[in-house]
């Protein structure tokens, strides 16, 4: 999408069809000069004189007439934003008149003859984005407001337009930029033995950013609740009892269960009812180092399913002491994580209560111990998600989900690098990758393809 934002543009801004009032919108550096050539005010000698008396404010509605190409005077009111206080951060004007399509088209034609050009679809909103007035998530919300067909869709779009998604993402970006600045300052003075940020503080800031990003991811994924799709994902180490638990909850043999670790190399899903909710239950491959293309693909699929989950069930074999990975996961697990201790029918070697403050349920797929309690806990987490307050518009879900997952993965790598003392250079590199992925969501990093995707469905005049 390559447009000259220094052009002055014009379009009909009101809905098609006949109405009591129609609106023609003009925006661009020469707006006042262009409109001033063909608008005669009933209240002053000229538009320029009126603006000179209140140059930094929105003028009152000026009653007057717009002189059309054939000399006909079209009566109406003119509103002018002469400075960067407008939606586009450019001088802007709106001519309000009779809502007749032929008259509005004649007004557009006259304004074009005075020096403007017809706006491209979405160009007013695009200028607002390029000027920093809104971010990409808010631009998508503008289109969602236009396209909404019900009160619920309208409420969702308006919350997002008001910054319901832009605010949290912006705060995460600011926090990560601050963390990166401290890291890089330390790298610049590495020979001076000056510590700008301690390892413990660095880890705290990264964990905070990761937790906040998980909340945003839940905010996006919670949108699927309204359509009846609630994803609950089982994850954990190989042979931790995931597949047996999956079969017990679904009352099926969908997942293959053996004593060989790593049997599940793909993911298996099934629909179940838990309380009043329709649940998509997903059993994923055990977490392990990738070896070969099949393992790489299965681990990637696990990460995708895990990030999309409204509820994550961290399965831990209660007959074995917690592994290093499990202890680490217990410390940094997302807020929507429920710990499930499996195989309670075997001798117990795992005292989870001393290792985490996360809620946990003790279960056995053999004796059915704890399964009802597990269903109750899942239902509580789903009920607490409150999707009506956190959902986002569909176009944002489609565009932003993968970028958020990339950002989350980079933060996880940064945390691992911090804990493993791999060096601040590695941590800084991962933070930059996380910021780049976040930038693609809000629009601080964008390409013409991204702009075409966001603005391509807009109508002219918006």
Tell me the structural class.
alpha/beta
Which geometry do the CA atoms define?
elongated
Radius of gyration: 29 Å
Number of distinct beta strands: 13
Enter the CATH topology name of the largest domain.
Rossmann fold
- The residue fraction in helices comes out at 40-55%
Q: What's the architecture of the largest domain in CATH terms?
A: 3-Layer(aba) Sandwich
Order of helices and strands: EEHEHEEEHEHHHHHEHEEHEHEEHHHHH
CATH superfamily label of the largest domain? P-loop containing nucleotide triphosphate hydrolases
Write up this protein.
The chain is an alpha/beta fold and 462 residues long. It folds into two domains: 126 residues, Gyrase A, domain 2; 276 residues, P-loop containing nucleotide triphosphate hydrolases (Rossmann fold, 3-Layer(aba) Sandwich), CATH 3.40.50. It has 16 helices and 13 strands. The strands form two sheets. Strands 3-4-5-6-2-1-7 form a seven-stranded mixed sheet. It has a six-stranded mixed sheet with strand order 9-10-8-11-12-13, sandwiched between helices. Helix 5 runs antiparallel to helix 6 and helix 7 packs antiparallel against helix 15. The two termini are 16 Å apart. About 5% of the residues have low confidence.
């Amino acid at each position: 999408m390559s447009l000259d934002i220094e052009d002055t543009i014009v379009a009909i801004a009101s809905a098609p069809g006949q109405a009591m009032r129609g609106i023609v919108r003009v925006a661009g550096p020469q707006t006042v000069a262009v409109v001033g050539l063909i608008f005669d005010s009933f209240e002053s000698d000229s538009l320029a004189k009126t603006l000179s008396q209140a140059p930094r404010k929105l003028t009152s509605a000026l009653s007057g007439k717009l002189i059309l190409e054939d000399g006909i005077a079209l009566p109406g009111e003119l509103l002018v934003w002469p400075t960067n206080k407008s939606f586009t951060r450019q001088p802007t004007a709106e001519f309000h008149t009779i809502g007749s399509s032929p008259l509005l088209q004649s007004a557009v034609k006259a304004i074009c003859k005075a020096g403007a050009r017809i706006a491209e679809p979405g160009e007013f909103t695009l200028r607002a984005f390029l000027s920093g007035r809104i971010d990409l998530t808010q631009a998508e919300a503008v289109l969602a407001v236009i396209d909404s067909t019900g009160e619920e869709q309208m409420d969702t779009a308006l919350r997002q337009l008001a910054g319901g998604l832009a605010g949290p993402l912006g705060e995460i970006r600011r926090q990560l930029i601050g963390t990166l600045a401290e890291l890089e300052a330390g790298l610049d003075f590495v020979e001076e033995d000056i510590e700008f940020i301690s390892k413990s503080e660095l880890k705290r800031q990264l964990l905070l950013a990761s937790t906040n990003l998980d909340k945003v991811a839940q905010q996006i994924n919670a949108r699927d609740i309204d359509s009846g799709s609630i994803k609950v994902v089982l994850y954990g180490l190989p042979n931790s009892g995931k597949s047996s638990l999956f079969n017990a909850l679904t009352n099926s043999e969908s997942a293959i269960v053996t004593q060989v670790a790593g049997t599940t190399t793909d993911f298996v899903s099934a629909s179940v009812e838990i309380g009043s909710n329709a649940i998509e239950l997903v059993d994923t491959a055990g977490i392990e180092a990738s070896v070969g293309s099949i393992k790489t693909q299965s681990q990637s699929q696990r990460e995708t399913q895990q990030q999309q989950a409204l509820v994550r069930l961290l399965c831990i074999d209660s007959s074995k002491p917690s592994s290093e990975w499990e202890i680490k996961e217990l410390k940094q697990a997302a807020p929507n994580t429920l710990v499930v201790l499996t195989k309670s029918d075997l001798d117990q070697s795992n005292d989870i209560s001393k290792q985490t403050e996360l809620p946990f349920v003790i279960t056995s797929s053999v004796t059915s111990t704890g399964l009802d309690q597990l269903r109750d806990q899942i239902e509580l987490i789903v009920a607490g998600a409150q999707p009506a307050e956190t959902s986002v518009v569909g176009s944002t879900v489609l565009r932003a989900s993968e970028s958020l997952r990339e950002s989350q993965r980079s933060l996880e790598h940064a945390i691992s690098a911090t804990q493993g003392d791999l060096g601040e250079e590695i941590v800084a590199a991962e933070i930059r990758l996380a910021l780049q992925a976040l930038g693609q969501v809000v629009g601080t990093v964008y390409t013409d393809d991204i702009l075409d995707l966001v603005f391509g469905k807009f109508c002219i005049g918006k």
